[in-house]
Amino acid sequence: WWTGSVSLAADALESLVNLAGAVFALAMVTLAAQPPDAEHPYGHHKAEYFSSGFEGILIIAAGLGILWGAADRWRHPQPLESVGVGVALAVVSSALNGALAWAMLRKAREVRSVALAGDARHLITDVWTSAGVVAGLIGVMATGWHWLDPLLAMVVALNILREGWHLMRESTRGLMDEALDDDALARVQAVLVAFSSAHPARFDHIASRVAGQRRFVDLHLHLPSHWTLARAAALRGDVERALMAAVPGLRASIQLLPTDVEALSLDEEHLI
How many structural domains compose the chain? Predict the structure, then answer.
């Protein structure tokens, strides 16, 4: 508000949302890393999705507020003051956000963290919007077209709303137990095909899901009824280890069944 620029105010508000989201993301990543307990035997991995949802709500609220302010400034334009100082601060802030986003995105890919990836994407968006605001304000100073300021704020707001929608969608997909991505599923299928070719084994009822940094796959392994339990368990262990080696962060759960027995299931069957 020091410069009277609604676009700079919008950029600053987005930075505040980034800070609030980062603090909440840190709390959720810490919670997600906690080991399973009696109340949460499958772990706390989904906590990260609350971070994405929370930040998405903050971003959408900020975007709507910016749109409201920009519309009012469009109707009642006013001259800007100390724009050079505001532009300099925006450039410094954008550079810091860019460096932080790069580091966070690299770490998010390393640990497969939804919360960190969401924060990194948001920071990258902030960098681009800041660059647009700076370029636009330079244009305002050069031309005296004060209507460019609220127009830039509207563009920033629409970009913020798009990013907020993306984060909300990611959060919802995770909480709804979305299946593994196509690449991970292809690697799972390749492992099962290899074992089916080398052993008298058949796999079916394959189901997968993602929960934060962890990935899960459940399936049935059918083996000849004359096999001993020890032999069947040994092969199951080999399959589980191969699956977990093929897909990082995977937890495989395999139910053993005789070849001539089909387990009852209401789910669609997937055969190999």
Answer: 2
